[in-house]
Fold these 4 entries.
Entry 1:
Amino acid sequence: MDVPCVAVAREAGEAARTALAEAGALDDDHEIAVDDGRIYIPVTDTDAAVDAVAALDGDAEMTTRDLPVRQGVRTPADILGFEPSLERIGDIVVIDEDDPDRARAIAEAVIDADLPARSVLNRASKIKGELRVREWEVVAVDSSATAEETNAAAASDLSPTETVHREYSHEFLLDLAAVYFSPRLATERHRVVEQIEPGEQVLDMFAGVGPFAIPAASRGASVVAVDLNETAIDYCRENARRNGVSDRVTAIAGDVRDVADDYRGWADRLVMNLPHSANEFVETAVELAGEECVIHYYDIQHEDDPFGPGIAAIREAAEPEYAVSVETEHVVRSYAPHELNVCLDVQLTTTHR
């Protein structure tokens, strides 16, 4: 039967499916179809679906298609009798439950369901420390699960907290117990990366395992990826290798403020994805900026004025040496009640030529 769908390019399928699931717009009752390089994802709420995939920059379109009803797929909800809150990172399923009995029941349902999952982790702490990592409780492991073979490792080679996450035709090896990573930012990362032109010099000031840096290099940019977390940088180097861009990615472990002297005036584009603290690094960003530079500045602020503090911080650091033009004020997602995670795309142009 004909059902409403979002149609996207095949390489954008997982990011679109994740965005639709987070928006509660994914139709689990019908199969996803693939035809001539396009993926057709069934949805239950067309308005919510349009909003969910808006960051795909025109790659997504609403349509209808004759899709078969799903048959015989047993989900965790079928087993539990309620819909649990789950997040998938690679073949790891993440839950957030305070009740140990409920956490165990959900984890067992995930393992027993027909959806692929190698381990179930429960959040055991908030994100903390300079390295932005959290503690995890390993609630369940399916020792018989076999993940898709990757370039270097099969499921049996990985710890319960380590996985290979795929996003927009790239893959990222990571360990959730040692690094920060959010799959919820997939469409935002894609939005930024799509702006990059071949030959650009891109500096990611807080690079993690490389989810901005590796796709940027795949676009033909020369990339410097900096992070305080040495383990994250090790993964970034490995991810550059497995995605075939090692020759275009320089990964540096350390504080970006200590790296600035080596790359002063180098960057055509800067990524500042460190909400809550990015304002502390704006002066360093200006030091790194070339004669013309785009800054992608991420912030978390109250909904009453989500963009003003970031704009003020950039202007204070950059003017009068640079003319400052705010190109985009973009809401990434809701972060907490009355707080928004936002991005400012800001063009700096030197006034001294």
Entry 2:
Amino acid sequence: MPNSAAALRPAVPDAGDLAAFAEQLADLARPIVRSYFRTPVGVEWKADLSPVTVADTAVERALREAIAARFPDHGILGEEEAAVGIDRPVVWVVDPIDGTKSFMTGLPLFGTLIAAVAQGRAEVGVIEVPALGDRWIGIAGAGTRFNGAPCSTSAAARLGEARLYATSPDMFAPAEGAAFGALAQKVALRRFGGDCYAYGLVACGHVDLVVEAGLKPYDYMALVPVVEGAGGVITDWRGAPLTIASGGQVVAAATAALHAAALAELQPAAR
């Protein structure tokens, strides 16, 4: 006799179906974001002093409606509205505009992030960059593609050859900033800016290392399949896998050796 609990449990779509829908969501977001970009949109400041615009709310609302219509039994976690069903087998984690400060100042390196998390694991991740028409999609076990073509990380294994990015030095608490500074002294190149775009550049082999802190699940869950699918490693500063419950310290590296070297420098501030 079939297990009655299993029979009642919602089926989890395979990664290919989730990926196809994730791309549909990215297609939905792109024209909405473009319609607001470099226009005089109003900005409000939330309690945590992060900005939000009408573009953020319009995109998230469109994504939530599309997800609810296609997969009513799936959960949704986004930046601008309350979470729904995050204990369900599949949860969509979305950031309508990752890099709102870039968006509101006309810098085109912001993105829409879309992740399908099944049984706690990020199976599909999309970095959609509307202003540039760029898109990365990573699928667990099936690699990462950039604008339709396979991509892969660099072979950088030593800090001395690594190109390091972080969105801003302001994102680090004092101890984190000290650890990041010590790491930055040992790399070949340090640059700031880029938001989610820097992680896409890791997946394409142009950047070797990204180190950040203070992130939320909607900032990093979509990045996991993109970086891992391209051959890279992405974890928290302790080396633990990133989940919806992670603390917000993120390190992405082109290779396992480079990742281990970065963790050794960051260890004093890992939590």
Entry 3:
Amino acid sequence: MTAFRLTETPLLSRSAVGRAEELRSDSHALLAGWQDAVLLRVNHRGQVLVDDEGLVFGAATELGPEPVRGAVFLGIRKDRHVWAMRVQAMTGKLADLRVLGGTLDDADAGLLTGAIAMLNWHDSASFSALDGAASEPSMSGWSRISTTTGHEEFPRTDPAVICLVHDDGDRVLLARQPTWPPRRFSILAGFVEAGESLETCVVREIKEEVGLEVRDVHYLGSQPWPFPRSVMIGFSAVGDPDAALVFADGEIAEARWFTRDEVRRALEFGDWASDADAPLLLPGSISIARGMIESWAGADRGTAASNA
């Protein structure tokens, strides 16, 4: 049973909003759309206003009669332009993407994920990486221009692999970072290095973190992870459960092989937020890790199916 597939699309990979990238440099179309555009306000903690129906949008014209500097054009939702803006403070019920991710519909999940990713990038990109000069937003927030040389820079996304290691049978390897409380486990992950393929990164990261050689690396799916600017690229791989585990780089405090039945029971307890007195707690639904674990846990029941 070397290969299995994700049973569902990762929550943050859902998006039903057209990004309308052809409008980003069309000042006339953006101005016209601004008149009835909606605005998603995001504070520096990544929180937005919510109500019982989901995200609360304001009117873009509350900022002014035309698109303002610092606003990011996200696309078109229900025939209206959608913009996002960083704000200092908001009054009302607030929640962040980690809490909301599993409750939003496909359109709003995609909008909020994109808004947080873009605003996080702008927060850290005020100066050109090429010449050090101050930079200004352009392309309705989708690039920045150096005020000295005119050099244009685009949003940065850091690729990271996340891998479910199993024994090609009934056991899966789960690990705990030093900062996590006991009983909280997940699968292994790490950032891709320069000049490295994704598959090579999988093999290297698992060897570095737990000292295990893996084989049969297979792609499963991907998910944006805007905390602050990553994309998680999911894989499965096969390892030997009899091999010694070595935690050499300090990133892993504990790792153990768990049976499929143990994982299934843990999934029934909920996630890391659960107060259940359970021997194993697993990540929440917002993470692709949860979907990968659920897919592996159900693979022998014939429930795994392609999400393509």
Entry 4:
Amino acid sequence: MTESSDASTKPLTIVLGCDTFAPDVNGAARFAERLAAGLVARGHTVHVIAPSRTIFKTGSWDERHEGARLHMHRLFSLRWYPHPWLRFMMPWTMARNAGRILDEVKPDAVHFQSHFVVGRGLSIAARKRGIRVIATNHTMPENMIEHTTVPKPLQPVLLKWSWRDATQILKQADAVTTPTRRAADYLESATGIRDVYAIGNGVRVSDYTPDFEHRGNRIVFVGRVTSEKRIEVLLHAVSMLPKTLDWSLEIVGDGELRHSLERLAAQLGVADRVTLSGLVSDEDLKKAYSRADVLAMPSTAELQSIVTMEAMASGLPVVAADAMALPHLVHDGENGFLFRPDDARDLAAKLQRILTLPDDEFRRMKKASLRLIQGHDIEWTLTAFECLYRGRPVVDPTARLDSEAEDREDHVAEGR
């Protein structure tokens, strides 16, 4: 093996910078955890800089996530009380520690997951040391503003400032990524940054079990129980479904709106058909997907939606809002339906169409979800980021051969 080929395949040392990380439950934290574990499984060394979970325990130690050993650097943080769980690090703490950690670790690349405190401190420190910097954007300032205490009349000013600030930090990176092409186009338009990579968050498709039987008109929603998810629209929609369908809705997740949604379900007369399961284990989450017939995703603020990908890997048709990145996953009439955002009546109509499909059409939609999710397998995501860390060209990780998808469909069908 030549010296150059050794350099192109040698294990890497990566520093991931995260403003939110496990045990936080959200898309960005989940992606960072899976990315870190996947990189370790490929032989790389991963250090994660993330907020402390309490003000009393900070420092560096190893933690196991997704079966992988990660070198954690938990820095002092405080709870951001307008938000139900978010913690934030002090900018001066990040600035002081970023250089120290990079000098100790000597990474091949730094990959920050947001442009807030961690991304700012890491990008500046890495630039000074000539370390390659990759940035991934998981959030939109529009979604964060609702968790501030800024009066509504002043929010447009804050939004403009937030995008300008994001632009300054993201431009520090050698490469910028976001989960979908639509999100990448949006980011390019908002920041003026060009050549943003669309690299999906990815799921390990083989971890999920499709079931090709009708189970009883079960609808499932998975996600944070917060205002941005528009769960109240879903409750209004299911209240319009014919009772003869004998439908049920399971809401998996927790958040500050749980009690208000319970009250709304009672007011709409559907409390006996709606179950709020709260937070569940990964194993129970997979079971929730397997026993459902359709995923409902009413959110209008998804930059990708790991939940939708998990549901598709479970062979579920999806009814999703025609907003942001969801149309990238849900192909209307193929593996589900899109509905007009915030239109409960349209959502109800699309759910009813799914639940009343003939068996052969229902099976066709389930197989379409399995086919379309193949290009979002996390192994392709890992390969794409390895290329970026090494400064090599990236092959679109969503490009899959149809024959691979068909092989899996046949395998699943034969196993039933």
